[in-house]
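Continuing the series of single-chain predictions for the mutant panel. This is the parent chain; the variants come on the following pages.
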Amino acid sequence: MPHAALRHFERLLAKDPVLRDALAAALPRGTGGARFVPDVEVLDCGDHFLVRMDLPGVARASVRVRLDGGRIKVSGARAIDRPDGARVRTNERAEGSFEREFLLPADVDGAGVRARLVDGVLSVTVPRRAGARARDVDVDV
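Parent structure:
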């Protein structure tokens, strides 16, 4: 597969956990060089959204959270330290750079976004603008 096509395929897998999980059984494991794709959950908490991303072993200094138009991008890298001279016999620990991107709803307050990394979990809180919450509308007869 040409290098550009492989990068495109890796981006698709990184952005689509359903596709990644569906193909996981078919992809080789334990051969080393696995690409790190952090697991994510996005929660609607009423007055805010909460994006949580598992980043075990990722240094805080390498994590970048960026607002770009109507998108939030999280990027960084995880490196695996190995003793000098050690030979890898089995490797199921993924490493490398990652980037995840999410489309933000129109009613969020981009200026109020906060990010916090604690115990290997990145939590990004994205508040909704006051008064922009969904509401039911009565239907007149």
